[in-house]
Every structure is written in structure tokens, then in C-alpha cells.
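Lab manual, section 2.4: Encoding a predicted structure.

Procedure: take the sequence of the chain (143 residues), apply the prediction step described in section 2.3, and record the output as C-alpha cells. A sample record is shown.
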Amino acid sequence: MEQLILVGELNETKIAHEINLIGQRFGAFMTSQAFLFGAYAYVAAPDSAAHLRGVLMLLGLAITFVMGPSILAAKRVLTKLQIVRAEVERVVRDKTGLPMPLLGDSANRDMGLASTIFWGNATLWGVPLITLATWGLLFLRGK
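Recorded output:
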């Protein structure tokens, strides 16, 4: 049981690290996009630096193409680590009888936890897709 606790602690440390990486990448992504959208709004105004519009749109698209997959890559690692977590939780539950809900598991619908994985991931894939679509539409419209 002591080895199981050590494995669980090590795994939780790795999970915390991956969550931290996701947060850092997502924060950098959102900061860059906020700056670019603000700059674009400024240059999109009449009598402003119109030649920068295309540059800002391409930069926004490029950052989205780079940061989006980076965020999702960290999420894939996190998913693999959560498999180990589930196994540790299963063994602890079997040996101790303590209830340890597996978040997002459909068996936990009565606890209100069935959709946690979906909604927890919605921002990770949704925001880059929305940003990509927005920059793409601006680019196609040429404004």
C-alpha cells in the first residue's frame, strides 16, 4: 500500500505539472490574441495603418496554429496520467472501501459529475477553434 501511495503522489505531481503547463499556454494564447485583436481594431479604423491589417491577421492565425495544438498536446499527456490516477483510485477503493469518484465517469451521474471531463475540455478546444474561425473570417473578408 505504501508503494501505491508513492505512485499516486508522483502521478498527482505530474498531473499538477501538466495542468500548470496548460494554464500557462492558455494564458499566453489568450494574452497574445487579446493584444492582436486590439491592435487589429485600431488599424481597421479608417485612416490608420491599413498595411498592418494583413500582418496582424496572419500573426493571429499563426499563433492559433502553434498554440492550439500545444495546449491539446499537454491535454493528451494529462489524459494518459489520469488513466494511472484512475487505477490507483480503483486499488485504493478496493482495498479500503473508501468512495473515490472518478470525475467524468458516467457512473457518477447521481453525483452531478458526469459531464466534468467534457466541460473541462470545452475551453481547450473551443477557444482556439473560435479564434481560428474569427481570424480566418477577417482574413477572407480582407478587412
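Check your result against the sample. The chain has one domain: 2-89+123-141.
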